[in-house]
Amino acid sequence: YDKWYTKSFSYKNNSRQDADRSPVFLQFIDCCWQIMRQFPHAFQFTEDLLLIILDHLYSCLFGTFLYNSERERMVAEVKTKTISLWSLVLSNTSDFENPLYNPVTRHHVLFPLTSMRHLRLWDKYYCRWNPAMRPQEPVHIRFKELLHLKTQVEKRVEELRRELAARQTHDSPRVASPVV
Length: 180
Description:
By secondary structure, the protein is mainly alpha-helical. The chain folds into 2 domains: 2-135, no CATH class; 136-171. 47% of the residues lie in helices and 0% in strands. It is built from 8 helices and no strands. The chain has helices spanning 2-8, 24-38, 47-55, 70-75, 78-81, 85-91, 123-126, 139-171. The radius of gyration is 27 Å and the shape is elongated. The termini are far apart. Keywords: Coiled coil. One of its GO terms (cellular component) is cytoplasm. Residues 1-126 form the Myotubularin phosphatase domain. Belongs to the protein-tyrosine phosphatase family. Non-receptor class myotubularin subfamily. This is Myotubularin phosphatase domain-containing protein.
């Protein structure tokens, strides 16, 4: 078992053949995306986080996915020689926040539909380099833009209300106080 496990899940060991590597992590991330697609309000993050994780799985720009175990990373002193992918993610959290997220859903059990007719090809990952299959703009990006516009409009409405109230106060006839 140990030999099979090491052989199948080896990502960054040059002594392993590509044919011996397993796409289990990619499949896991794809499953996360499938569930996110079915429950867009249940996740605090967007698919962009999943994409950046997969983009850097083999990039070697970060030490996060180097070697097969925490022990191997410690022996290789990865933490002192590289930075973590999470440092990039945590420095740009707003890029990965889901504006559709509803905190109430965090206590709910999700029951995704798993039949083939409910599963979709993740175009934004698998087809992003094919110009003929460019996916449309993600809903969460448009939603963020609309929330920003809503905030601007609400501020402008409040300014106009204050201005109107000031004019009404200034223009209203003043009644003189009776002198006693």
